[in-house]
Each structure stands twice: as structure tokens, then as C-alpha cells.
Amino acid sequence: MRRDEDVDARETISVLKRAGKALLFDIDGTLADTDALHLEAFNQVLGPRGHIFDHARFSKELQGFSNASIGTRFLADQPPERQAAILGAKEETFRKLVSGKIQAVPGLMTLLALADRANTPLVAVTNAPRLNAEMLLSGLGVVHRFKALIIGDELPHGKPHPMPYLEGLRAVNAAPGLSLAFEDSRSGIQSASAAGIATIGIRTSLSHDDMVAAGARMTAKTFDDPELIKLVAAKMNW
After folding, report:
1. CA-CA distance, 81 to 71, in Å (whole number)?
2. Which of 4, 6, 28, 209 is catalytic?
3. What pTM value is reported for the model?
4. CA 161 to chain centre
5. Would residue 54 show up in a list of annotated catalytic residues for this protein?
6. Is 116 part of the annotated catalytic residue set?
7. In this prediction, what percent of the chain has a pLDDT beyond 70?
8. Residue 232: which residues within 8 A CB-CB, separation 6 or more?
9. 187 to each of 5, 106, 182, how far by Cα in Å?
10. CA distance linking residue 205 with residue 29, whole number of Å
């Protein structure tokens, strides 16, 4: 982190220590189980360029990372504008694949309704392009529930840097120590944890051990897991 960014981060954390509660959610693989379709789209676009991914490689090298970082790593022989175009084609492929197939992870709608009744603000924090994020939130019918949508690629740093989650907290004046994050990827868990937010791993893709190793406080397969509900209710004082 550069000196000016370090100062900004410290000032942000100082302000947030005096703030309230929030629930912050990744989108892909967390609100909706879309990772298999992302894997298919990456293989369609990057496969002809010599990069084929199985699930294990996808989860370590692609899942949760910004397109800018993916382009730098796997399309290093291309100029930046060409990297963006290739990965833009991947996102277009994904949107075609996911159209009509957007389904919430079980228990999500009940949890969001509980948050609404308690006036607990909700924030979506993602490395996905804005068009993808808005398509998924709209497809789930939850756009109106989220007070803010933070896009990692629109910031100086995306996940696994803490900046996206710090921006999410700042958007609703929430404190990291009073909030919870929900993530399905290593980079997302690292981002939220580095922002000081206790993070629950949603096991749509990674194992419990992988998520705990990345920094997750606990993990659950779905949002209606009794231990997840217990932790959220205690943290939010519901």
C-alpha cells in the first residue's frame, strides 16, 4: 500500500470504529451458485489461448479475482486494451450462460428479510463487472434490498485487498467489528478479514478447511444453517 493509501485506510478504520452494523455479501458463488458457469465461460474464452481450468485450478487462480489481475496473469502477452476485450468476451459468455438460471443459495431470502425487519443495512461487494453484478441482483429480485453495490474493478484495489470491504462499510457508516461478511472465495475472505470483518464462508465451491485457512470465522453450505443463523442473530442483536 502506498503511503497516501495507508493514511486513507487508517482514517477510514478510525471513522468506522464509531459506526453501526451491516451485513456485507459477495455476489457470485455467495448469493447465487454461479461458479460452474464462470468456469465454463473462462474455458471457452481462455482455452483457445492455452489455459484450461478444472475446478481446483479455478478456485485457486480465478475465483474471486478481478479481471484486471486475471488479464495480467494469463494474458501477459496482450496489451491492456486487448486483455480487457478478451475478458469482456468472457463476461458476455457468462451472462448468456447464466440467463434464466439465477437461483438464490437456500436460506438467503429469509436472512435478507430478517435484516430488513431489523433495519440492518445490506451491502454487495464484488470483483465482478457492474453489468454482471446488476444482472445477478436483478435476477434474484434483491436490488432494492441492498443499500450499496461496491465493484472492486472500479477502485484502485480489488479483492483480496481490503479496500472493497472498507468502501462497503463506509457506504453505510458501519463498523467492521460490528458487521459480518459472507464470501465463497479465498480472495474474498482475505479481503473482508483484512478489513476487520468477521467472515462466514459459504461452501458453494471451497471446503471448510480451505475457507478457515483463508480466514473465515465459520462456514456453512447454505444460509439456513442453524449455526450461521445463530451467529448472525448474536452479532446483529436480533
Report:
1. 10
2. 28
3. 0.84
4. 12
5. no
6. no
7. 92
8. 23, 111, 114, 180, 200, 238
9. 20, 23, 12
10. 7
